[in-house]
Design brief:
The chain is mostly helical. Helix content is about 65%, strand content about 0%.
Length: about 160
Amino acid sequence: MDNAIAALFLDYSCKKLDGMTENLRVCLSKLTDAQIWERHGAHENAVGNLVLHLCGNMRQWIMHGVGAAKDVRVRDAEFSAADGLSGAELMEKFAATVAEANGIIASVPAERLVERITPQTHEVSVLDAIYQVVGHVQQHVGQIILLTKQMTAKDLDLTMPRPR
């Protein structure tokens, strides 16, 4: 039973990350590079910053925390970037990061889900780390969806296409 529950959790986590990847792909395809890096003040993050932030977070929590890769994250750089990567380049980076994270998540044996790791400054279980990443991606992709709707003045039909 424990293995079945673990497999369900791991599979669903990967599917959620894949779904958010598709939502992000729709958003980035509808925005210009200028819109992707647009900010209305120092208190805001551009869509591009959020994408870089999600990649850095996944890398730190999954690749480093769960997968034991070296921690190479430079969090401040995620938010200080003001341009440089196009929408297509950001999408490629995000999709590759999700694919790598999903490879690690999918290979986690059930017994490792309770293992304690320290991906950042505090100790969490492997399950906690995966759950944190999936929720974090959903949170920020949700922000990107809202920003895209506001910038394009259109519904994105991400959940249920409807006639208008």
